[in-house]
């Protein structure tokens, strides 16, 4: 099983791949391919991490321990689908509002404006507010909306409607 994450990223804010030719080598040691319908890029990275980013998305991959494999995706806006191989634990997606950490699952993160939304399709994901330690554990069908600002404690877990879930995944041709 591969772990999937849908994550938003910000156009023009970090490291974009817009205009990269199909199967181009990126500076992060990852390979990129451009797809259409909807327009997106697929980035395959060492260590079992794959990203699918919307056209115009910008992001920054971080290799904290410098082993040649990214373990963090920093993002601001727009969306990306992340797939992490099951042997990879600890992969994180950081937005201005939240930190989502993989626990062996299929999940999505959408950072739009002042809110980051996280949805779990399979398995379990821990989500905390930026700068806070207490996390909510999300299971299949659960979602959270983490707003910018002074809220404390773990995010409130809710069930997402099929419509909301499918609308997010459609941005990646799924």
Automatic annotation (TrEMBL):
One Gene Ontology MF term: sigma factor antagonist activity
Keyword Signal: yes
Protein name: Iron dicitrate transport regulator FecR
Signal peptide (from-to): 1-24
Originating species: Methylobacterium oryzihabitans
Domain FecR protein: 43-125
InterPro entries: FecR (IPR006860), Ferrdict_sens_TM (IPR012373)
The keyword Signal belongs to this UniProt entry's keyword annotation: yes
Keywords: Signal
């Amino acid at each position: 099983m591969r772990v999937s994450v849908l994550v938003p990223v910000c156009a023009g804010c970090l490291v974009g791949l817009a205009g990269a030719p199909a199967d181009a080598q990126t500076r992060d040691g990852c390979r990129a391919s451009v797809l259409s319908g909807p327009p997106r890029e697929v980035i395959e990275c060492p260590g079992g991490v794959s990203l699918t980013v919307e056209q115009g998305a910008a992001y920054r991959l971080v290799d904290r321990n410098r082993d040649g494999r990214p373990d963090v995706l920093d993002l601001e806006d727009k969306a990306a689908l992340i797939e992490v191989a099951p042997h990879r634990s600890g992969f994180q997606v950081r937005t201005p509002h939240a930190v989502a950490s993989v626990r062996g699952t299929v999940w999505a993160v959408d950072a739009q404006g002042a809110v980051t939304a996280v949805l779990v399709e399979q398995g379990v994901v821990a989500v905390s507010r930026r700068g806070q330690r207490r996390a909510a554990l999300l299971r299949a069908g659960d979602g959270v909306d983490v707003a910018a600002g002074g809220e404390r404690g773990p995010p409130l877990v809710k069930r997402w409607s099929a419509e909301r879930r499918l609308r997010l995944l459609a941005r990646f041709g799924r």
